[in-house]
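REQUEST ID: PR-0412
SUBMITTED BY: lab tech R.K.
PRIORITY: routine
TASK: structure prediction, single protein chain
INPUT:
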Amino acid sequence: MTLPLTTTLSSGLTARVEEDRWVPGAVQLVIDGTPQSHVNLHDNSDLFFEYIRRIGHVIDLCRPPGSPISALHLGGGAFTLPRYIEATRPGSRQQVIELEGDLVDLVREAAPLPKQASIRVRRGDARDVLGRLPAGMHGAMDLVVVDIFAGAQTPAHVSSREFYALIAPLLSPDGVVVVNAADGAGMRFVRGQAATLDALFPAVAAIGEPQVLKGRRFGNVILVAGASGAAWEWLPRLLASGPHPARQLIGDEFADFIRGASPVTDATAVDSPLPARSLFDQG
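STATUS: complete
OUTPUT:
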């Protein structure tokens, strides 16, 4: 097999898996010019993008080190986080929901999943598939990761209270939801997502680079929502794990962050903002 490999998705966007010219043995998935995933095929525990490392630290801390978990991933990409969980928590049971079947086939050809991994892929729209998951998954998920992008945007229909209400029943009593949200000046989209989670879950936090959280530059904010307040026993350790600089908004600071923002509903949901094309210019 010779990289790069490309395919045209049902959305009309082009997906491309190519070698990383800077990291030997690594590949990246690029969709419509936007880097979506990075995988070190020699070491699946190596997380490249800053926001993915933040999610990885949630995975590290939410349960005792090395213990298997049950995880659901909404959005597959190149399966970076499912690979990470298998590498750091062998024996975990994982499911991935991915809309683009051609993308799944492309990634499996270019960067096959570990043969021993228990990773089931369900193809289809995340919201539609959530409504059809078997009853046995309800109350059983230790972790749900929401990382859904069509190109560089999160579609509106997977950003509303009605959407997140489909996730809540899946969580175990101390389960955790992690949402990757991208935004820029004003943080209107992220603040709306944070307010929506706050309306549904007893404990919510926002984690990111300080200038991003202040709305001074475009970037990713990781929202962590707990099915119970017990989740926050390990939350303070996230900042120490990096990447740095980092800031964590909980309690009064989180309340200040979402002040004036209303929970998003199907009637008010919009796609996340597009970043400037120059953000991904690799020269």
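NOTES: The chain has nine helices and twelve strands.
REVIEWED BY: pending
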